[in-house]
Amino acid sequence: MAWPNIFQRGALLSQFSHHHVVVFLLTFFSYSLLHASRKTFSNVKVSISKQWTPSAFNKSIELPVEIWSSNHLFPSAEEATLFLGTLDTIFLFSYAVGLFISGIVGDRLNLRWVLSFGMCSSALVVFVFGTLTEWLHFYNKGLYCSLWIVNGLLQSSGWPCVVAVMGNWFGKAGRGVVFGLWSACASVGNILGACLASSVLQYGYEYAFLVTAAVQFAGGIIIFFGLLVSPEEIGLPGIEAEENFEDDSHRPLISGAENEDDAEPNYSIQEDKTITQVKAISFYQACCLPGVIAYSLAYACLKLVNYSFFFWLPFYLSNNFGWKEAEADKLSIWYDVGGIIGGTLQGFISDVLQKRAPVLALSLLLAVGSLVGYSRSPNDKSINALLMAVTGFFIGGPSNMISSAISADLGRQELIQGSTEALATVTGIVDGTGSIGAAVGQMRKQTPRQKVTDCWSHSNAWGELIRKEDLRTTDVPRETRGEYLHIIYF
Asked: What is the mean pLDDT of residues 368-396?
C-alpha cells in the first residue's frame, strides 16, 4: 500500500491559504449553530412535557380541568411525549423534502445567500416556537406543527450549501481527513446546544430556545457578509485547475477552467459571469450518477439509528436512570465526542487506503456490537459515557463520512461533463434520503419498554426499577399491573 503523497512532508497544509481556513471555520460553525438549535429541542423535552401537562401530578390535589386546560395541552405526560415524537417526525419529513429542494436551489443561486437566509429565518421560527409562545402562554398543537414544518424546510438549506462550499475550496486529495474533521460540525453543534440549554434551563426552557436562536441569527449575519463561496470570487484558481495541474487521475473532466483563471486572475467580480456560464446538473442526472442511490439508501438506514440517539438520548437518560435533565444533557455529549473522533480517524484511514467503502462496512459491523453493549449499560454514569462514546464512534463516524466526504466525492465525478454545479444537488439527495429514513424511525409505535418508562414517570420512585411492592403504591391501573410485571421480569 503506497502512502498518499498528500500526507508527505506537510503537503496537505502547504496547499491551503488563510482563505481556506476562514471558509473551513465559517461553514463549520454555521452548521454547528443549526444543529445546536435542533439539539435544544431534544434537550428540553422533559421540561416541555411537564409544561404541557397538568402542573400537579400529585393525586391528592385534584385541580378542576378548567383551571389548567387553558394553558396546557395534554392530560398526561404520556400523551405529551407522543406529541413530541410526532413533532420530530414532522420536522424530519419536512427537512427531507427541503433537502431535495435546497440542493437544487443551492446549485442555481448564490450559496451564501441561501445559507444566510436559512439560518436567520430558522432562528426566528425557533424563537417563536419555544420562547414567544411560552412568554404569551399560548399553547396550540396546530401552531407547533406548522412552525416545525417551516423550521424543517428552512434548516434544510444548511447542509447542501456548506458541503458545496467546502467542495469548491477543498479538492479530492486529503478530502477524507479534511471533511472527516470538518463533519464534526454537527457533533460540535450538539455539544454546543446541550451546553447552552443546560446553562439556562434553570430559568425555563424558553430561555434555551432564546439563546440558541439569537446565536444562530448572529451567525447568519456573519455568513452573509463574510463567506466566500468559491476561490474564483477572489481570483484564485478553482480546485479543478489545481487538480489538473497536479495530474490527478480522479479529477472532474471539466475543460477550460485553467484558461479562464489564467486570463483574468486578479478580478474578484467574476461571480456573476461564472454563474451564467455554468449549467447546473438536473435532479434526474444527479440520481443517475454512480453510487448516489446506493449511498443514499445506506445513509437512510444509518441516519435512522443516529437520529434516534440525537432526538431521544437525553430524554432516555433522564427517564430511564432518573438523572436530572441538566445532567442527562451534559452526559449525552459523549455520543457526539465519539462521532467526532470516529469521523476524523475513519476519514484519515480511508485516505490512506484510498477507499472509503471498506472502512464504512467494518465500522457498521462493529456498530451492531456497540449498540447491543449500550442497551445493557448499568446505572453508572462513567460506564454509560464510555459505552456511549464507543457507540458514537461506530455510528456517528460513518454518518459523518457519508454526508460530507463521500457526498463531495459523488458530486465531483468524472462523468459530470460541463457542469461543476452538482455538489449541492447530490448532497441534498443523499441527506434527504437519509432524513426520510430517520423520519420513518420516529414513526414507530410505542414499545413495551416505553410503556414501562411511562409507568416510571408516574410512579412514586422516579426512574428507579419498579418492584412488585412499588407497583402496589403507584397509579398504574390494577388491570395492567400484570403486564408491567411480566415485562420487567421477563
From this structure: 90
Residue 249 — pLDDT band, cuts 50, 70, 90? very low
CA angle 322, 327, 328 (to 5 degrees): 65
Banded pLDDT at 481 (limits 50, 70, 90) = very low
Closest CA to 286 of 449, 389, 407: 407
Cα–Cα distances in angstroms (integers) from residue 377 to residues 197, 229, 466, 485, in the given order: 25, 45, 18, 21
Dihedrals φ, ψ of 137, to 5°? Answer: 55, 45
Interatomic CA distance for residues 397 and 183, integer angstroms: 9
Phi and psi dihedrals of 227, rounded to 5?
Answer: -85, 130
Grid cell 497544509 in the structure block, residue: 13
Length of the chain, please? Answer: 490
Tell me whether residue 82 is exposed, middle or buried, using C-beta atoms within 10 angstroms of its C-beta: 0 to 12, 13 to 18, 19 or more. middle
Q: Which residues of 65-78 are buried (b: 16+ CB within 10 A; e: fewer)?
A: eeeeeeebbbeebb
Cα–Cα distance measured from residue 149 to residue 152, given in angstroms and rounded to the nearest whole number: 5
Question: In the prediction, which pLDDT does 279 show?
Answer: 62
> Distance between CA 434 and CA 159 in Å, rounded?
12
Q: How far is CA 93 from CA 39, 399, 440, in A?
A: 17, 19, 9
The total of other beta-carbon atoms located within 10 Å of residue 39's CB is 31
In this predicted structure, the answer to whether residue 325 has a pLDDT above a threshold of 90 is no
237 within 8 A of 19, measured Cβ to Cβ: no
Chain centroid to CA 329: how far? 16
Position of cell 413530541? 84
Please tell me the distance from the alpha carbon of residue 296 to that of residue 286, in angstroms, as a whole number: 12
Q: Using an 8 Å Cβ cutoff, are 107 and 421 in contact?
A: yes
Distance of CA 358 to the CA centre of its chain: 24
pLDDT digits (tens, 9 = 90+) for 210-239: 999 999 999 999 999 989 888 888 777 766
- Return the minimum-mean-pLDDT range out of 53-57, 191-195, 404-408: 53-57
Q: Which amino acid is at 182?
A: W
